[in-house]
């Protein structure tokens, strides 16, 4: 992949558009530090992706949500905080606050199997926001949702990240995502082309 260059400021959102295989998810994986760059640079507030991830500055909402099935929504979010060093009561308090921000405060005791697809995605959003990241990455945020749920969940994602002050980068082929983003970047044949959002 070459020719992909963009900047996202705090409170702004970018949609990476393109067909399957165009490199959208790869870009996210580079930013999150999972895929090394052969050339070029990626910075999150002046840090390289690995260092930024270690500080909790990068939040990730994967397409499959990656929720632990035997943990409640509250435990899924608080566990991420505890891994970063937060204490039990503090982690649970922050987790409950983040679940409330995405409209799941009343369902915090339910396990993923007891939640709808849209609700599971909101747990993943709350988990991503719980570490107060500088940037949130969302991979195909509407792919696993029915059309009625997709618009609502996408609105929750965009508004929750905007309220947190983080930047948002979404990889998608869904035009609905592009409509809600501040800017759209079209990926074709390993290159990026800017387009009006």
From TrEMBL:
Keyword hit for Nucleotide-binding: yes
GO molecular function: ATP binding
CDD domains from the UniProt entry: ABC_MJ0796_LolCDE_FtsE (cd03255)
Keywords: ATP-binding, Nucleotide-binding, Transport
Domain ABC transporter: start-end pairs: 1-197
A family per Pfam: ABC_tran
Protein name: ABC transporter ATP-binding protein
Species of the source: Pseudokineococcus basanitobsidens
The organism's taxonomic lineage, starting at the top: Bacteria, Bacillati, Actinomycetota, Actinomycetes, Kineosporiales
């Amino acid at each position: 992949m070459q020719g992909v260059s963009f900047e996202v400021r705090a409170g702004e959102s970018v949609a990476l558009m393109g067909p399957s295989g165009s490199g959208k998810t790869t870009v996210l994986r580079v930013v999150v530090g999972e895929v090394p760059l052969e050339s070029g640079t990626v910075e999150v507030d002046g840090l390289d992706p690995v260092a930024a991830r270690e500080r909790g500055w990068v939040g990730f909402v994967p397409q499959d949500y990656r929720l632990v099935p035997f943990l409640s929504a509250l435990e899924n979010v608080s566990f991420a905080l505890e891994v970063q060093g937060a204490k039990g009561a503090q982690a649970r308090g922050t987790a409950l606050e983040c679940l409330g921000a995405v409209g799941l405060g009343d369902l915090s005791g339910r396990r993923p199997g007891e939640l709808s697809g849209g609700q599971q995605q909101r747990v993943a959003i709350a988990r991503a926001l719980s570490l107060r990241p500088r940037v949130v990455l969302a991979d195909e945020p509407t792919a696993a949702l029915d059309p009625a749920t997709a618009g609502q969940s996408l609105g929750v994602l965009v508004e929750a990240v905007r309220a947190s002050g983080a930047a948002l980068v979404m990889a998608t082929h869904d035009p609905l995502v592009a409509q809600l983003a501040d800017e759209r970047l079209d990926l074709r044949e390993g290159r990026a082309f800017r387009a009006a959002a």
